Protein 1
Amino acid sequence: MTTDQSAEGYSFEDIQLIASNVLKQTRHKPSIGIICGSGLGGLADIVQDAETVPYSSIPEFPVTTVKGHEGKLVFGYLEGKPVVLMRGRFHYYEGYPMWKVAMPVRVMKAMGISTLIVTNAAGGLNENFKTGDLMILRDHIDLPGLTGECVLIGKNDDRFGPRFPAMVGTYDSELIELAKETAVNLGYSSILREGTYIMIGGPSFETVAESRLLRNWGADAVGMSTVPESVVAKHCGIRVFGISLITDMCSLSYDAANATTHEEVLAIGEKRAGDLQKLICAMIGNMNLNNN
Ligand SMILES: O=P(O)(O)O[C@@H]1C[C@H](O)[C@@H](CO)O1
Ligand SMILES: Nc1nc2[nH]cnc2c(=O)[nH]1
């Protein structure tokens, strides 16, 4: 590797090298990348003609340390479309610098993906939501970014994308419409929501006062991931679709205060991931890959 990894991240050449190393380990050439959130990796089990590349076999790839995140790339087909799934993502709270959290997105771009589906488990802030709902990301609030930890900080290489990328429209409106139509066809209208996801650094869950603050800022759901990946994807011209499984409702009043646990997040993930998987598969089936 040619760069100072702690400050800048991997160079453009480093990323191409990592991507070509991964592609040597599979017959597949993916067009769609999917990042699986906490407890949501089951989607990988239904990939057809699957080939697995463990993160440990990829030089310079980080390792996953969080329960509910296995560490492997799964290549193959969903609904006849070539995909690569990240079964296990990296979080800032694991101690990785922000650029490293999102580095796999650049690797997936170098492998040829043009569409990214980002999933996560999130806490509901919008009082109309309930546990088990699916929330399409219309927008996000990059709280770490607003406080000086934007994933794009450091020297910019224009081959990745522009120095000052626009973030309006990060979440592709055609994919949002496709998700809504697909959800109606699946009979999911009553669990489908749309809103703004806010990323906090974690790993501590929110206090009541913090949840109230995030809600007042206009966030509908809160989590500890997704935003750096979406920002890097938008920066390098990938169209993005984001979706949250609401695994718990954040307490907005002390009377109703109950403590969220990661075990609860994983349990709801296990129980409700099927709905998310069906929605994503049906969307992929209807996706036009020549559109971008
Ligand atoms: O990877 P995601 O964002 O789905 O994981 C969420 C946020 C924390 O990592 C964890 C909390 O339970 O779940
Ligand atoms: N910050 C945060 N992340 C989550 N991930 C899943 N649930 C939650 C939550 O309630 N808060």
Protein 2
Amino acid sequence: MERPSRLVLLSELRVRNTTYDVSLSRSQLTWKRRVSSPVYHPFRPSVCHSVSVSEIISVREEEEENGSRRREDGSWKKIKEREEKDCRQAFTVLYVERCRQHRWRCAEVTFTCSDGPLCQHWISSIREQLATISSRPKHLLVYINPYGGKRQGKRIYEQKVAPLFAQAGVSTHVIVTEYANHARDHLKTEAELKKFDGVVCVGGDGMFSEIIHGLIWRTQIDNGVDPNCPDETLSGCSLRIGIIPAGSTDCICFATVGTNDPVTSALHIIVGDSQPMDVCSVHHNNTFLRYSVSLLGYGFYGDVLTDSERKRWMGPARYDLSGLKMFLTHHYYEGTVSYLPARGIIGTPRDAARCRSGCVVCQHNGQLHSERAESYEMDDMSNCESDGEWRTIRGKFLAINAASMSCACPRSPKGLSPAAHLADGTTDLILVRKCSRFDFLRHLLRHTSKDDQFDLTFVEVHRVRRFRFMPRHCQSDSELELDLQENSKHQIFSQICRDHPACGCAPAYSSWNCDGEILTHTAIDVRVHCQLINLFARGIEEPPVFEDLTNPCAI
Ligand SMILES: CCCCCCCCCCCCC/C=C/[C@@H](O)[C@H](COP(=O)(O)O)NC(=O)CCCCCCCCCCCCCCC
Ligand SMILES: Nc1ncnc2c1ncn2[C@@H]1O[C@H](COP(=O)(O)OP(=O)(O)O)[C@@H](O)[C@H]1O
Ligand SMILES: [Ca+2]
């Protein structure tokens, strides 16, 4: 248990004409109402409030002039005569308040003091405490995609986010992108990264993908790492990334914060939260293709994305329409998946436990990963294939999905792989074998209910560090020959299906959906890089189940 920290200040101050004992320690600001009679009064407002110093946004002096009180932002607020007589000086504390469903709001409380010097002392003491928090960003580089989601990125930033950054004293350099890959290329070559404490992305998962491509690429080049080599250990990015959701799916924001709300995201950035995250590198024949942090999907999700790109004008609803269309189309895909199971880790894709704020699974597996990386370096063995045995599965699939995190989003609040972890160095490889439309619908529907979408005979899931996929049409003749010998019976059925499309399953080519972008190649080699990037987030918070004894109001 955290020890109650030393008291910095204790005064009797007023909040809306009621006297409170207000105390400031290194960790908490607490205001307790003076109780004149010990009799409990059910209709009186709450007696004690406590705010963690780490969740104070800022403190603002309220100046008085001619019966009005001037705020620091220049606006004026009329004060009542009685209040004016009683109190000479006041200050307002802005702080994080938790609302329903992981939403945060900026709340404020104004304390009035009996004299000016006391008020100044309070203001400077709170500011001093805030200044000791080194994790808070001071200068941010902001990229806005004006065409993401419902095309509201610019408005969302200007109306909901910029005023909060201004109140918190965070300075920004804002770039509204003019074309696709503008943000990526700016980060890769031009941006003066040393000037900033973080990068903010206003847009959807596609825009976030641009940001990480720019940042990761730049970091590798600066550190002399070859991004084209799939076996290289990548250098971690030091700049944190904040996501202001303004896209169509926004699953990276949803899965790391618990809600898609611009104000909540802005507050997580201001308080300087940090959430490490795994990144998959995707290669084809020793050539770098892309990075992925959420979904790599071949088959169903690849086709939904390809189809939905033509319907971009529809906004986020394009995914539902394309989803329905591809569900009815019911294509299957043949190929070979090989993977390296993640060994020595804790956690499986079928766990009931979820990755939450301060996740111990991520901490344990992240530690294991860095220890292994060190021993590989000492042995001069950068190739992590020695990690374990490769396994191979050949077959016909409706979907092949790799979820490096849960991929929770408003469409599916538990996500594609509900027990996946944000920062454990693994990805969950989900194979949905060819099945009837009815069965596939059962599987899809379970993404929206409490039922387990993996508890079906045609679905399997593996927690892996690395995997490869080779579509059947890319396999060499000798590999196909091997296939034929191993699986002659199924091949005959597949031939029958091809000759009689009316049976309802059509073999086809698909493409990979990589965090919402279509990959140019289908034969790919994927490797997870544990905790390569950091976000201004803290993971989804668990609602408190018992009274927190470190909270002064609980004692
Ligand atoms: C029948 C209901 C089935 C609901 C199944 C929902 C599963 C949803 C899992 C979503 C995982 C999303 C992973 C994130 C992907 C994003 O990177 C990426 C890009 O995001 P951005 O546009 O913000 O840049 N987004 C996507 O690729 C969108 C995927 C959306 C898939 C929607 C699928 C809808 C399926 C509807 C089937 C309908 C069958 C109805 C039969 C009567
Ligand atoms: N100024 C721009 N004009 C056109 N496309 C852009 C611009 N800025 C970014 N993009 C691209 O828009 C695509 C979709 O962006 P995103 O913000 O993810 O929205 P959505 O969630 O609606 O897909 C991304 O591929 C991104 O590269
Ligand atoms: Ca992971």
Protein 3
Amino acid sequence: MKKYNIVIVGGGSTWTPGLLQSLCKNKDVFPLKRLVLYDINPERQEVIGEFAKILFKEKYPELDFEYTTDKEVAYKDMDFVFCQIRTGGYEMREKDEKIPLSFGVIGQETCGPGGMAYGMRSIRDMIEMINDVRKYSPDAWILNYTNPAAIVAEALRRVFPDDKKILNICDQPVNLLRSYGRLLDMDPNEFEPVYFGLNHFGWFTNLYDKDGNDLVPKIKEIILEKGFAPVDAEQRDQSWLDTYALVKDMLQDFPDYLPNTYLQYYYYPEYKVKKLNPNYTRANEVMDGREKRVFEECRRVIKAGTAKDCSVIHNDAHGDMIVEVAESIAHNRNRIYIIITENNGLISNIQDDAMVEVAAILGKNGPRPMGVGKIGTFYKGLIEQQLAYEKLTVDAYFEGSYEKALQALTLNRTVVDAKKARKVLDALIEANKEYWPELK
Ligand SMILES: NC(=O)c1ccc[n+]([C@@H]2O[C@H](COP(=O)([O-])OP(=O)(O)OC[C@H]3O[C@@H](n4cnc5c(N)ncnc54)[C@H](O)[C@@H]3O)[C@@H](O)[C@H]2O)c1
Ligand SMILES: O=P(O)(O)OC[C@H]1O[C@H](O[C@H]2[C@H](O)[C@@H](O)[C@@H](O)O[C@@H]2CO)[C@H](O)[C@@H](O)[C@@H]1O
Ligand SMILES: [Mn+2]
């Protein structure tokens, strides 16, 4: 079997150890020749890289592994690039969340003004990364899950219109599928989903079992009766449990389809603002929780010299998904994933150049997305408003336009009021001086 070369961009990410464990777990079905971790932060990367050396000595001794901050070493002769960077780190995520909240607006890393701020930071680095990769590996598949995926995908669509080997993908739909699997006591790998929307802004319309029966009515019934929890509820922080619990409310109000959890920020902005703590946001929870746990555990493994009893770094949907997606492409498995792609009629009453999220058959020749036809007025209205916000944000970035940024924020359902939008925007501009283009 062919052995593949992979680079993980953002090798120092909190998700990397889980991803490395997924690569070990899948070594028989998706064998690697070479794996490189690349990061711009040598300190973070060293901890994860030294952990990886111990893990691979025990579980993947034949692997040619290295970690680096040198782009040529990182990108040369690669088959797959897994990209998970966070421009500005958790320090800026905290500002994305706290600045809007200080004006009484949703503070979330991918939704509302926080998502805009993070998007305007990510675009420049993502363009640079793709240009660098293409210099050294013109044919590599670039699997990107850097957030905010909707804004990143729209920017990359504009800059690299002919590059058919960039795939933007989010793991939230997979996590939801796994959670439905737990609810029904069924294997989620057997589900055939029908899904439409934008990233962090979509709905499952149907979910077929292997005999073609639609499971959505049953799932709705259970959620409405008993509530909803993530598949890995035991490992989740309270904020994620609260997020999943609100799916019941969303179904009570809008029972047509199963909503992506992120829709709660758009359906219930007032309620969510009241619930969010402006002094201790998700960024604080992550820095005090996952980030600490992951780095402490890596350091413990390095000191112990063995990864055999490594426990807190579990395999979650994120690592598994990205490895399985690569394997489906490499071996033409044609499995179904929910991916981000240019609309071109997939949702027939939405503009062609929207980057939409739908189910797709994924094989060697890339995704073959599945259309959903015409959608109802409520969903079309929501999507078009959010899409306008996303497109105007990307316009603002490329044109350096303050006006477009203000229009974008005013259109966002989490903001609405233009005077408020201006105040939040001005504060975000100040906080992002180092990262954003100048908006005039
Ligand atoms: N699409 C999804 O569903 C999904 C799921 C999980 C995480 N993510 C995304 O993955 C990314 C990583 O998340 P995290 O919480 O682990 O953050 P993190 O800050 O722990 O990790 C990001 C790493 O990227 C590095 N980095 C920053 N800019 C870089 C650049 N230009 N080139 C190379 N490396 C760079 C940082 O030094 C850091 O080590 C984020 O964008 C996050 O939103 C996406
Ligand atoms: O707040 P964070 O940093 O914990 O998470 C932000 C990410 O949330 C979603 O990812 C889920 C993922 O679906 C699940 O598999 C598991 O790994 O937990 C993650 C959240 O903890 C979302 O899809 C991502 O885009 C976010 O980056
Ligand atoms: Mn996501």
